[in-house]
Amino acid sequence: MIPYRGLYIYPWDILDQDDLASFAVRMRNMGINTLCVAATYHAGKFLRPHGRSQKVFFPQDGATYLPVQPWGSGISPIIATQGLRMEALQGLHAQGLKVAAWTVLLHNTALGTQYPQFTCHNAFGDSYPYSLCPSHEAVREYGVNLCREMGANPYISQIICETPGWQPFRHGFHHEMSFLAPHMGADTLLGLCFCSACMSRAAKDGVNVTALRQRVAAYLSRYMDRPDDSPAADDAGRLMQMLVCDDDLRDFLRWRCGQVTSFVAQIRAAVRQPVGVYVIPSVMENPVLSWVEGSDLHALSRVCDGLEVCLYGGNTRAALSRLADIRDIIGIQGKLRTVLRPASCDFDTAAAFVAHVQALGSRGVEEFGFYNFGHLRRENLHWIDQAVHAVQAQVLPL
Fold it and tell me: What's residue 143's pLDDT?
């Protein structure tokens, strides 16, 4: 069986193609066997180096781009004005390409604005409209229904769930501004949700969440009243001190991980077999920090078909170190795939990228995803071709 070779792609980049059949042939010749199509996505401003219809594209915020049947009650998806029709999915499938529904679950500003009562609320009570909270039953039902509908599509082979938990405090919201330097401790606490559902559920499960919320708000107020920022190394040390000494904080963080794990388990149970369910557990540079978003790597790897971790950056030593950490956490039973960016933001040359992929392959990575067709130059697509064939040669017997 040929290992997974995925290419992330937006629906508008597929709609840009005059001939889907020849496009599919080009993808297969590159060694790509799966298109990871954005099934739901958020707003943005995207530069498209080889885009045909628009060089700068603004997606519809929070829209669902693949065909779904609406359900009767609760939170409903926002159907894209220009989505992919069933005929396009059928055409890709007919040309031998698998289609994965890359589903951004809870990072949805449009829905958060429409349903502010279901969003993350920090210790001060401020709502984060870009982050739906998985503690709310309505939010969980939305995510489960959405993935069930995606999985019911006969041309979808797998679902890749991104943002199944809470978003970090710093996540590039529109014109996001802060004159305070990033602070690991303060940012982590600012990202914690103390909405009504989290407060009631956590308290019911024995977490002293009311006192914790008061302490978090008090600490953040004191930190913001300081005359200047602290060194980055001190930030991590203060967070470690809180994690070691504050039992309520530690209990709450573990409880949050349980919420996300059970949510993903519900999704896996609802999606028909044999459609696979994979999870991108973190948007953090280092996926080991996924607990900030409520993702327990070990637990998640046990309730879905595998993790798809983003190992961005061109530092091969760092990537291998993070890979070793993740493997140590999830164990040998957990299935692991990696996502890489074959572009100048991470690598200077094709040779550097190919060597990076080969290094990961030599450490046991068999399945790769590449991000993202629309953002890449045409030259970068050739990098993927070279890397896929190079790593394939590694595993072929002599």
Answer: 98
Sites in the chain below the pLDDT cut of 70: 172, 395-398
b/e 82-101 (16+ beta carbons within 10 angstroms → b): ebbeeebbebbbeeebbbbb
217 torsion bin: left (phi>0), alpha (psi -120 to 50), beta (else)? alpha
Residue 370 makes CB contacts below 8 A (sequence gap 6+) with 6, 7, 8, 32, 339, 340, 341, 342, 384
- CA angle (201, 62, 126) in 5-degree steps: 45
With 0.90 as the threshold, say if the pTM is over it.
Answer: yes
Half-sphere exposure of 65 (CA within 13 A, CB side): 29
Residue 280: name the closest of 107, 142, 110 by CA.
Answer: 107
What is the residue type of 84?
L
Residue with tokens 């080889």: 50
Q: Which residues of 217-240 are buried (b: 16+ CB within 10 A; e: fewer)?
A: bebbeebeeeeeebeeeebeebbe
Q: Name the token pair of 368.
A: 């790769």
Burial string for 337-368 (b: 16+ CB within 10 Å, else e) reads bbbbbbbeebbeebeebbebbbbbbeeebebb
Question: Residue 173: its pLDDT value, please?
Answer: 74
Map out the domains of the chain with their CATH numbers.
5-395 (3.20.20.80)
